[in-house]
Design goal:
It is built from three helices and two strands, in the order H-H-E-E-H. By secondary structure, it is of the alpha+beta class. A two-stranded parallel ribbon has the order 1-2.
């Protein structure tokens, strides 16, 4: 279902796989963006140099029927898209880059 929901906005994720979690990569990062119901910062004690951005979303599979799940997936997609755009704009603004 997520593949079809993303295809609605012209994004093909049919061949995308999530990479494995590698703690060393996280420790080299400036930002951690978590997208889930519970913030990762509650589970992992992050070093102070890593800025944590949490995007709170509901699990679409909690919905009872197919059409409610579709609507929930769309809401999650749009919420994540909005946050990521704002995040990218804030980084560009901080670095003086015109978008």
């Amino acid at each position: 279902m997520p593949v079809a929901i993303m295809r609605e906005i012209g994004i093909d994720i049919s061949t995308i796989e999530s990479p494995p979690f590698v703690l060393e990569k996280l420790l080299e990062s400036d930002y951690l963006i978590s997208i889930c119901e519970n913030p990762v910062g509650e589970v992992i004690d992050l070093p102070p140099h890593i800025k944590h951005v949490h995007i709170q979303v509901e699990d679409p599979l909690r919905e009872g029927d197919y059409f409610a799940q579709l609507q929930s997936y769309r809401k999650v997609r749009d919420t994540i898209g909005s946050y990521i755009k704002k995040f990218a704009e804030s980084l560009n603004y901080a670095e003086g880059i015109d978008i």
